[in-house]
Amino acid sequence: MKLLFLILIAPLISYSQTNDSIFLRKIYNTALSKGEAYEDLRELCKTIGARISGSAEAAMAVQWGEQKMKSYGFDTVYLQEVKVPHWERGTKEAGWIRTSEGKMLKVNLLALGGSIGTNGLLEGEIVAFNHMDELKKASKSQVQGKIVFLNQAMNEQQIETFRAYGGCYTIRGNGAVEASKLGAKAVIIRSLGLAIDEHPHTGSMHYADSIPKIPAAALSTQDAEILAQILKKQKANFVFEMDCRDYPDVVSYNVIAEIKGSKFPNQIITMGGHLDSWDTGEGAHDDGAGIMHCLEALRILKVLNYKPINTLRCVFFMNEENGNRGGETYATWSKSRGEIQLTALESDRGGFSPRGFEVDGSEKYVTFLQSLEKHFEPYDLSIFRPGYGGVDISPLKRSFEGIPLFGFAVDSQRYFDFHHAPSDVFENVNKRELELGCAAIGAFIYLLDRNYSIFLP
Amino acid sequence: MKLLFLILIAPLISYSQTNDSIFLRKIYNTALSKGEAYEDLRELCKTIGARISGSAEAAMAVQWGEQKMKSYGFDTVYLQEVKVPHWERGTKEAGWIRTSEGKMLKVNLLALGGSIGTNGLLEGEIVAFNHMDELKKASKSQVQGKIVFLNQAMNEQQIETFRAYGGCYTIRGNGAVEASKLGAKAVIIRSLGLAIDEHPHTGSMHYADSIPKIPAAALSTQDAEILAQILKKQKANFVFEMDCRDYPDVVSYNVIAEIKGSKFPNQIITMGGHLDSWDTGEGAHDDGAGIMHCLEALRILKVLNYKPINTLRCVFFMNEENGNRGGETYATWSKSRGEIQLTALESDRGGFSPRGFEVDGSEKYVTFLQSLEKHFEPYDLSIFRPGYGGVDISPLKRSFEGIPLFGFAVDSQRYFDFHHAPSDVFENVNKRELELGCAAIGAFIYLLDRNYSIFLP
User: Fold this and answer.
1) Rounded CA gap, A133 and A147, in Å?
2) Are the Cβ atoms of A353 and B159 closer than 8 angstroms?
3) How confident is the model over B290-314, as pLDDT tens digits?
4) Closest Cα partner for B42 from B284, B231, B274?
5) With an 8 Å Cβ cutoff, are A430 and B436 in contact?
6) Rounded to a whole number, what is the distance in Å from the CA of A382 to chain B's nearest CA?
7) What sign results for the dihedral spanned by CA atoms B423, B426, B428, B434?
8) So what's the ipTM on this one?
């Protein structure tokens, strides 16, 4: 019986696999020979550039995204209102090391996102810690009235740079609170980057309700190294000015395009990245590349006249960087409309050479993901394993119990050279690497759609 | 019996695997935290730069390599004499398109390596072919007295860029011969590169004994596209001058370092890349990165006090680019000394993010290679398959029957943006990507040494 079944079914499987294989090849060929992602990214980076939530650039990016999606003729394109925080760097931002010998050295610094300003020039003696744990163990008398310098470096021995980032994230996110608890008047951190260079890296930080707010900034890794060297020999002060501050929330939008499901329009497969960026560089890798990956994937499926079984939805999320309001709004909205979110995919690790996909989901989905690896052998993808989906899509877990979330994995080695830094510009994205990412996501979304039944609740 | 054997042997296997695993981690940690490859590459690129065989720079590079190897305290460091060809670009190199309307456009071009000069300004009507096969099918009357323009593009739909290069190589290698057969007075080719940019890419070409030699040059892909557009609308001439030419052979050297085998000093495991480069850019990826990979691998094994079973030999081969005299000399020399060459590894695909290893050898060695994959799982290497070794080590096959040759495989997407072009400079090599390559090779050579018995004749 089983043998007979296999004999009967084998040609069908083989036919279907061949069809998949041919279709995947078409997706790749289109991305590599008739791709639009690279020029779209150039447009976003060069005509708009950095686009932090609440800024004029973010508003223009919303318009740009909507127009671009409409130009591709998807079934539906619409905006989804999101109230976002509005923090501005201001116009004053400069810092110096003043050694005990009276020498002044200018440093490259960026206020951390959400920091208060210094209210004019702020100067204080520097007290340095090589690790967050050292600061936590310090006494008030060590820190009181001083400027804390957190010189914790990302661990270069981690092969996956995201792990190194995760291990160091706390100095940026929690440095101000921990320093302020001990009476510090400001905190400066070593930028979260693996390269030793002149670019400071900003990023989100937070304050706690009962702890006084103090200004927080990141020095370039190069300046952090110089400062550490100075402090080995003598005391030093840090002097800086920043006039960054919060403004009232602003109305902004997620930007959404869909190809309606031919059989199950209420069953949704979501893919996306974030449209906002930090207010430095051009948000090219983070996350211009990610939204181009998804937009181009949907465009290619349309160009190839693919009629999806379920609705394929591409979302340019707003405000991933400092609030995730777009992701939160989207999950709540989708649930309230009675949609069935089958699964979601996020691309937010840069436009580098693709390596594969990770899944945040139950064992069943890990096995499913691994079953897809064979389709990608011709394209040299090898990462098909449990892992992380993405920040924007993570609120879907709250709204849709058990939903598996996929994360697009690319080569991570260069990502933190550019992440949240002035160097995150279009020129640092490679055309082929970006295009291969678009193709991989197009192919993956196609396979998710074809195998949708595994995602049914 | 078998079961008992397994019970007895299992802890040993496990112990040995754990030891391997710990040692590999040490190799990676050393490369990533105490690496010298990046600064060594900077030195080679910035104090010497491009170093074509026979040039003063190549001679200085030999001295630099010997000093560097000696500074690391290997058991033996020596030079191996190699007679190399000596071709020079000269000082005149310029080209223009002259349209039938009389408009002149300057192009970026590079003489192909080995080309004759133009003997003053050379001008001729352009006859264009989009593929080598078109030229081969052309008649004498179409080509006679004209300048052939071979505008065959690398196939961007190939995922492995080396395949795309292989498919297009003939326009550079054989273009002059094929054009001259039909009476052309010169040949210009579209550069072998996937990006559309302003950099021309040089590389080797050849002449045939009975066919008149004609000048050969490569235009940047951007200029090739412009020229193709012009030719759609009107005829055009090409005008250029080059004073490149051959000189008599020059004495040069392979540069060699060894750690002697503690048990079998006459059994050799060779690893290497090539010290020479083309005479443009700085030979950073091609093949500065490759020789740094191997030098650093050997240095790390020494620093970690590893006592190899067999002799580990790092060779900086001379003259890979236009003759492979270094590789030929080495294979003959090794054979003549009665050495047992167990196997060899080459790194000559750039300093990009490592992907794994290929083997050019019998099925036994493919299986062996695949058995090594597990060791590299923590380091995200996934290519362990049949493939190519490298040009420098290929003559070993002639001298040592059945010898398996390993090639180090890195991400290939960006390689042909830099290959043989002015853009192949130090700044385009990423520190971490280079260091991960050094570690991968160090680990691989260690595993080859530990498993040497499989290579015994």
Assistant:
1) 17
2) no
3) 999 999 999 999 999 999 999 999 9
4) B284
5) no
6) 6
7) positive
8) 0.94
